[in-house]
Every structure is written in structure tokens, then in C-alpha cells.
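Re: the 292-residue chain
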Amino acid sequence: MVNCVRIAIPNKGRLQQPAIELLQMAGIKLIAVDEKALILPTNWSGVEIVMVRPEDIPYIIESGGADLGITGHDYVIESGTEVEELLPLDFGKARIVFAIPRNWNIGSIEDLIKSGSEIRIATKYHNIARSYISAKGIRARIVKISGAAEIMPYLGAADAVIDVMSTGTTLRLHGLEPLENIMDTYAVLIAPRKWMERSNSEKIELIVTMIKGVLTAKGRKMLFMNVPDRALGNVLSSLPAMLAPAITRLSKSDAWEVITVVDENELPEIILRAKVNGARDIVVVDIEKVVK
């Protein structure tokens, strides 16, 4: 398809559903197809979704197999690929940690290094682990795996792990505890380097703009209120806005309609100030997107 845009998203795991929901909020909705299908059409003409393993997405983007991808920052770093992180997303937050058995009674990475012991570390993050071990001067051998790392010390296949941790529950269940945080990770929207030179760059940019609009709108509310002419100055001075509140004189009235966008966390205080200063008929509305 000429100028078709492919968006690669995880085919499973903790990033899949939030990625689908984000695209839907941006207006890109999957068209019902066979659940086993890996290439899915959308309601946007010339835009399709590719379902692949999240760790493969950076390689697919780098090679030009897809134009945009949603994956973890950790997978981008681990891959070492030449891709551009366009946007950090507001889901998939976790940490990559070096975790050891609780019964080791080691309080710090320095204590481990001083012991001089050589250990086996199970991880799917082979490149991140190698860099970390080298930088810290840890005597270690990497046990390469592609699945769950936390079971490896229990099986005797490794002594410690380098793995992703959200709440720490899984590590605790397997008798492990984080000794040190290696890096923070989160979902990211990525694209190939020089994506602006592609023939479909305008459509890619539109998709990025819509996704950015969804992220910008989160945590914000729109306020509508009627304000008498005599109170307008006081009300406007009490209202935050992205640029400035929009005001329109109401026909056949000595009042104004005032519209502004505010942070949801500040909403009660702002409404109280507006009412005290003379505003009335205040309406709060959800915002779907804010496109700048």
C-alpha cells in the first residue's frame, strides 16, 4: 500500500493493552479480525498495526519493517539499535534491578565486590548486564535466558538475577531482593532515524501529534463558567490557562463566558476561587486531546 504506515506494538505482556488503549484514544482503532492475526487493519486508511514481541520492536523499526513502534525503553537500550525515541509514554514504568537471594545478607554492591566471589547472573538483558558488570567491577558470568529470571537461583542455574521489577512481588515470592537499581524504564514511542525523510512522513507526524495530544490532555479538565462584567477582572486573575482564558461576551447580557484548561489536581481550589470571585454556572468537561 502506497504511503502505508505500520505501527508495531507488543503482541503480549504488560505493555500490550495500554498500547492499544493509547492508540484508540488517539483515534486509531483496530478493526475486528482473527485474533491470531499479526497484521491488523485500523479505521485509519493506510495505517495498520503489527503485533510482535516487544524486544523485537527496536530491530523492526531500525530495519524499516515498521514506521512507529511502542516498546520499553529497556528494550531500546538493550538492542543498541539506531532508533529515535519520540515520546516517553505514561505507562510501563518499572526498574531494571540487580537482585540477590535474601539469605546472602549483603547490604550493598560494595560488600559484594569486596567479597571477591564470582557469581552467575541470569538475565535476558545481556547487553545491559555486561555493561553494568563491567562498570561496577563485579566478578560474574552471565547466564543467558529469554524468559523468567527469578526462578533460576531456586533451580541452581544462577546465583542472582538482573531483571525488570514493577512492585517487587515476584522477586520476593522467589526469595530475592533488589540490591541495586540499574536503570528506570517506561514505554516509549520510537521511529527510525531520519523518519522525516520518508515518503509517508506527513502521516507519521500526524499520528505522533495525535498521540502527543492524548498525553497532553491527561490530568487536565476544561472549565466553562459565566462571569458578570463587574467580576471579570478578579476571576481572570485567579484562573490558570495554557496561554490565557478564552472569553466571549454573552449576547443581550452584562456577563461573559470564560473557558480555560486546568490541572485536575488543582480543580477544587480553582473552582472555589472562581466562585468566591463571582463566577457562576461552572461546568467541568473531560478533555480528549490537546493538540498544540
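The chain has a mean pLDDT of 93.
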